[in-house]
Amino acid sequence: MKRNTLLTVHLIATIVAALTIATFFSLSLFAELKGDDGIIRSVKAFILYAMPIMILAMPTLKITGDKLAGKSKSPLVLAKVKRMKLILVNGICLVSLAIFLYYRSHYQSIDSVFLLAQIAEFIFGLANLTLIVLNARDGMQLSGKLQMKANGI
Predict the structure, then answer these.
(1) What are the TM regions of this chain, as residue ranges (predicted)?
(2) Who contacts 39 (Cβ-Cβ below 8 Å, separation ≥6)?
């Protein structure tokens, strides 16, 4: 696969992953703030059924990122690779939590156990979104589309 194609697929996977996580987070937050069990159930069902989008985007992101990184020793590339490992671990936690929250909301109860799992999902979701944004920032810097100052951004 040509490098430009890899870059395009990588960029699309990054956008899809970030938007999916942000959407799941926003919908869950809205449902929790509303406090309506019906809305919570609907959101958890939507997330479960939309989960394949994230399950496809994340490995695509990893595979294309690894191919683009090659054997680079660039500190930015190495930081992106390290973050990607955390993103994948968090992603596994997020998928597990999404399944648990769906099951709990539909077949058991929306109670303190549900709330603790929901809080964990918020934490993992924010962490993953932050890591993806940091990787996107570094990717833009690597591509020359973002210039970084010596003291940070």
Answers:
(1) 46-65, 86-103, 115-136
(2) 30, 31
**Number of Cβ atoms within 10 Å of the Cβ of 5:** 10
Work out the number of other CB atoms within 10 angstroms of the CB of residue 109: 10
Model confidence pLDDT, tens digit, residues 49-72: 999 999 999 999 999 999 998 899
Note whether residue 13 is domain-resident.
yes
Cα–Cα dist 69/73, whole Å: 9
Instruction: CATH number of the domain at 8, please.
Output: 1.20.1440
The confidence score (pLDDT) of residue 153 equals 53
- Give me the pLDDT at residue 115, please: 97
Beta bridge partners of 114: none
Residue 152: inside a domain: no
Interacting residues of 30 by C-beta distance below 8 A, sequence separation 6+: 39, 43
Identify the DSSP state of 75.
Answer: H
Provide the 3-class DSSP secondary structure of residue 149.
Answer: strand
- Residue 61: name the closest of 111, 100, 9, 124 by CA: 9
Query: Does residue 97 form part of some domain?
Result: yes
Position 70 in a domain:
yes
Q: Please tell me the predicted confidence (pLDDT) of residue 152.
A: 54
In whole angstroms, give the CA distance from residue 14 to residue 140. 12
CA 57 to chain centre: 9
